[in-house]
Amino acid sequence: MNKSEKIVKTFIQVIASPYFAIEDIAMVLNDHHIEYAVIGGIALAAHNYKRQTLDIDILISKKSFEVFTDKLVGVYFKGIAGSTRNFYYLTDVKKYRVEFLVEGDNNGIEMPNPLSIRTKMYGVWYIDLKNLIILKLNASRTKDISDVEYLIVNNELPLSFLENSNFCNEYTKIWNSLKRR
Fold first, then answer.
1. CA 145 to CA 62: how far, in whole Å?
2. In what helix (H) or strand (E) does residue 67 lie, and over which residues does it extend?
3. Which residues of 34-62 are buried (b: 16+ CB within 10 A; e: fewer)?
4. 89 pLDDT exceeds 50?
5. What's the pTM value of the predicted model, to 2 decimals?
């Protein structure tokens, strides 16, 4: 592969990445006063840990989900057959998969109202670091625990970071295991 082909390949990979679309999606949501917070893999990057992710996860309030489905689906987003919360964000170049998690119960995990856990960075509302870690610990999948490890290391978080949280014990175990390495 020559240098020009490598440049084109890299450009295509960047455009294909969901990281490429998040600012545009946020602009649409902000323009329509949607109450949201970006969570999941994209939010990790906002908190100093970028890893590969194939979709965009967005926590949305119940009230805003109604506005979203009434005003934005069919214009900016296209529903995915068989799902009520998975959509494609449509651009001239690509469609990006977006999963909306509505506040309340989501497969046994209680999701808070996004207004109570978000922080604005670069024009995008992201879940704050503390609540991202709590969300990851609550899900407790292997990749989520690994994400927490990287967040602790990359942000140089102290042992006391989740001191008054229901997840203090889980966080402390992970923090201690990292210090023993």
1. 28
2. helix 62-67
3. bbbbbbbbbbbebbebeeebeebbbbbbe
4. yes
5. 0.88
Q: Report helix, strand or coil for 57.
A: strand
Query: Is the model's pLDDT at 8 over the cut of 60?
Result: no
Instruction: Taking residues 170-176, report their average pLDDT.
Output: 97
Q: What pLDDT, in 10s, does the model give residues 102-151?
A: 999 777 788 999 999 999 998 999 999 999 999 999 988 999 999 999 99
**Average pLDDT over all residues of the chain:** 90
Measuring CA to CA, which residue among 18, 10, 20 is closest to residue 40?
18
Burial classification of residue 32, based on how many CB atoms lie within 10 Å of its CB (0-12 exposed, 13-18 middle, 19 or more buried): middle
**CB neighbour class for 113 (10 Å; exposed up to 12, middle 13-18, buried from 19):** middle
CB-based contacts of 59, cutoff 8 Å, min separation 6: 36, 37, 38, 39, 100, 101, 102, 103, 111, 112, 114, 117, 127
Domains of the chain: 3-127 (3.30.460), 132-181 (no CATH)
The DSSP bridge pattern shows strands 36-39 and 86-90 to be: unpaired
SS3 168: helix
